[in-house]
Amino acid sequence: MPKNKTILITGAGSGLGEGAAIGLARQGHKVIAGVQIDPQVTTLRDKVKELGLENNLHVIRLDVLDPFDVNSALRWDIDILVNNAGIGETGPVSETPIELVKKNFETNVFAPLVLSQKFIAKFVKEKKKAKVIWLSSMGGLFTPTHFGVYCSTKHALEALAESMKEELAPFGIQVQTINPGAFFTGFNERMLETSFRWLNETNFTKTADLQASIDAQVNVPDWKLNPQDMIDEMVRVIPAETGKFRNVFPPFVEDMLKDLHAKAWLNTI
């Protein structure tokens, strides 16, 4: 791959995706920032102009659920695809409406898999050395209570990425995951509110109990992490031609997950 890469990032209209797009463009890479809706296109293009990054950062509408947007994105000749777009559902798995579960999988798993398959077919046909990156999560490697729906989509990404890594190695196509900890960019905070739009007095899970459970898990100083630290790590990992397959950040989260995995063999019912 060339030193300065051409990188397509989905879900770049806010948060870590937007920050990584800007950071990579500042490093001299050509970035195509895919955003979900038209107002995000205008907002980010204005920001790009203010930053003087017009030559390096191109903003397009790329709703991963829209086949026309997907086919339009395929016109770009890229070196790296970053599957960052996603949504999150919280709440008791036992009661979450199945249509919301399906929607979470459609956005987080099926749509990015379709996009990846289409770009991979191009890479193979063109005999191109390329890379596919999946934005997973610390939640792809463990499952906190009441985060089961969202985490299950990220667990699925881990399986897809791990299999894809071996399948594509003979073609010179690299595959990685990036697994952020609890960085509060707006995404996590809004995800915590999702279950309260359907949970009511007819559910056996009570609103107060669910709120107490979520508060106990997230209202901890160690989880109020600075998003810029994660953005800097993404900017380091995404264009790199060597590195780890799975990239958990910050390091204390990786240590925590290793400890949880070791203890998982001792779990009882």
From TrEMBL:
GO molecular function, one term: oxidoreductase activity
Recorded superkingdom: Bacteria
Keywords: Oxidoreductase
Family label: Belongs to the short-chain dehydrogenases/reductases (SDR) family.
Name of the protein this chain belongs to: Short-chain dehydrogenase
